[in-house]
Amino acid sequence: GDTGGADVRPGGDDLPFVYSGTLVVQGQGVARVRATGPLTELGKIGRALLSVEPEATSIERETGHLVRRLALLGATLCLLVIVVYGLTRGDWVRGVLAGLTLAMATLPEEFPVVLTVFLALGAWRLSRRSVLTRRVAAVETLGAATVLCVDKTGTLTLNEMGVRSLRVGAESLDLRGGGDELPEAFHEVVEFAILAGQRDPFDPMEKAFKRLGDRFLVQTEHMHEDWTLVREYSLSPELLARSRVWRSRETDDYVIAAKGAPEAIADLCHLDDGALERLSRDVSAMADEGLRVLGVARASVPPQALPVIQHEFTFELLGLVGLEDPVRPTAVEAVKECRAAGIRVVMITGDYPGTARNIGLQVGLDIEKVVTGPELDGMTPAELQACVKTTSVFARVVPEQKLRLVEALKANGEIVAMTGDGVNDAPALKSAHIGIAMGGRGTDVAREAASLVLLDDDFTSIVQAVRLGRRIFDNLQKAMAYIFAVHVPIAGMSFLPVLFRWPLALFPVHIVFLELIIDPACSIVFEAEDEEADVMRRPPRDPRAQLFGVRTLTLSLAQGVVVLALVAAGYGLTLRAGLSENEARAFAFTTLIVANLGLIFANRSWTQTIFARLAVPNRALWFVTGGALAFLILSLNVPALNRVFRFAELGAGHFGLAVALGIASILWFEGLKAGSRL
User: Fold this and answer.
1) pLDDT at 115
2) pTM summary value
3) How confident is the model at residue 370 (pLDDT cuts 50, 70, 90)?
4) Quick one: average pLDDT of 436-460?
5) Dist CA 585 CA 504 (whole Å)
6) Residue 112 has pLDDT above 90, yes or no
7) Is 542 a catalytic residue?
8) What is the pLDDT of residues 399-442, one digit of tens each?
């Protein structure tokens, strides 16, 4: 209908608007288009999503910088080798060959490949834990999460509502016990709670009321399958209560059943101060038991033109209903695991503070301070930032306030994971570093805005995803450290012979052979490594910490330099001892291959020795090791391959010495691990 140009915001069923996403359940009508595209309600949400730009992760930025720097270094060294070789030896063709070999040895083509493979396989592993990845970069960000903001209903709880208690006046009834009879005093409150809901419900709360009626009232006069629905007054932001008007077969009057938030029902019943105080006391007592509390009321009017709003009925308060949503059995252990991992869990719920406090107590949250939505509205940004530092439970929060909470946590330097399921949760999900939508009960808009989708809506799945995120980052760091370490001797053995006027030790064919080991090793072997024992017993990594920090670079460089020193020493000494150029090259290459495999084994763990880590299975490791050794033996012993690789057959003594040098190159690192925790 025409609103006369008034600024009316769609959103309540009591307003004459429909929009994309509206579900027509009965009746018919004619609608006139008032807005399209970005001017619609969903369009406004879309604009809000566009204003929140997803950021590139620190690993993506760092890897990009590293690749550019190493590529520049490789190109510079390539030109330098060509010039030096050409000027000192007069052979420019061989100089170009030496330069290309060095360029192949230094170009960091593995880094982006490894990052892509790790994140893609990480997303696959997450899917096996009921977490769907929509943005692959969120996989590595999970390991840095410092705060998990979660809903109560369906995440920490089972979302399996059941009516646990009833209160009528001064009488109360606990329904946890057995029995098939309901005291007469409580029949009416159950009757009108059912009348105020859907006949064929899908909402968990409404289903709970229907089960209660089927249990106690099915053979009584309090069930009214033959009544006709005349009108419904739906929930609205101004009044959180629903009323349904029925035509009864027993009387000429219309019967109205109302159900909703206790304060809304109290408003409809126009309670005096004394009754309001008693109601508030009863609600608080029930909420403190962890119950979701609803009020129930009734009214009746003669058949006539019905009023526009519910307030015009004369309602009578019938009582209160307390619904219980049991805590997930795994939630307590999951929260404890988060605490051990240095992750703070923040519960955000629309329920009463008493209910939130009780659930928080059950799962092990800090409930000393509970902040409500109205209190949030009265806070300045600075006050909110101070508040979120010490508060783990927020109650009576509306979806629009979640964005403020996320922004406040981010302003404090936290890495925030946020769960949500509604359309209005979408901006908060997109603003969070890791937005997690509920797959079971979430809306399409929420899933589109999120980085991850929780298929089973279980908090434990989030914790398992964090564990996997930490494992991925650890293994990614090991793979990158190995790549950096192994390129030092490869690049060194391409450059030092030019510098010392030795015969070239490596040609492009040797680099290609080495890449056949490096790429599978860093992409598959390290990705398949199991997590370290302390992965969830250490604090989240500093989000500002670099993948290639000083410690990582120092250890990687030290490993590579030691290998280079032994390979170069072996190559130089074999030349001086009178071995031919091809024999010396075969000796150096064998040493380099064995050292390369040693680096793979050594970098599987920076806290366990090679022998201790062998107890952890890794099938890909043995495939890479077996394949590398088989190809090495063939290249040393098959004449055709000897010519391709420019090798000569090595005697058993020289082969054994090369293997020993390769093994010796990583012994110092094993000693360092055995003597201290890195």
Assistant:
1) 81
2) 0.74
3) very high
4) 85
5) 8
6) no
7) no
8) 789 999 999 999 999 999 998 887 778 888 989 999 999 887 77
pLDDT tens for 563-622 read: 999 999 999 999 999 999 999 999 999 999 999 999 999 999 988 889 989 989 999 999
CATH entry, 58-130+463-675, from 3.40.50.10540, 1.20.1110.10, 3.30.420.40, 1.50.10.10: 1.20.1110.10
DSSP per position, 258-324? EEE-HHHHHHHHT--HHHHHHHHHHHHHHHTTT-EEEEEEEEEE-SSPPPSSGGGS--EEEEEEEEE
| Domain 162-322 = CATH 3.40.1110.10 | yes
Mean pLDDT in the chain?
85
- What pLDDT is recorded for position 27? 53
Contact 107, 513 (CB under 8 A): no
CB 33, CB 24: distance < 8 Å: no
Encoded tokens for 24: 């027509």
- Angle between helices 459-500 and 581-602 in degrees, nearest 10: 160
Is the Cβ–Cβ distance between 168 and 186 less than 8 Å? yes
Q: Which two tokens stand for residue 232?
A: 């419904």
Rounded Cα distance, 589 and 99, in Å: 19
> What integer is the mean pLDDT of 24-46?
72
CA distance 287 to 284: 5
Query: Which element (helix H / strand E) includes 99?
Result: helix 92-106
Give the chain's count of helices (H) and strands (E). 25, 15
Q: Judge if 58-130+463-675 and 162-322 fold alike in CATH terms.
A: no
Calpha distance 466→419 (Å, rounded): 14
Contacts of 350 (CB under 8 A, 6+ apart): 373, 395, 396, 397, 398
In the chain, what are the domain boundaries?
Answer: 58-130+463-675, 143-158+328-457, 162-322
Q: What distance in Å separates the CA atoms of residue 430 and residue 360, rounded to the nearest whole number?
A: 26
**Which CATH code, of 3.90.220.20, 3.40.50.1000, 3.30.300.20, 3.10.180.10, is assigned to 143-158+328-457?**
3.40.50.1000
Work out the number of other CB atoms within 10 angstroms of the CB of residue 640: 9
- Which helix (H) or strand (E) segment is 233 a member of? strand 228-233
Residues 14, 151, 253, 474: which is the catalytic one?
Answer: 151
Structure-block tokens of residue 411: 């302003």
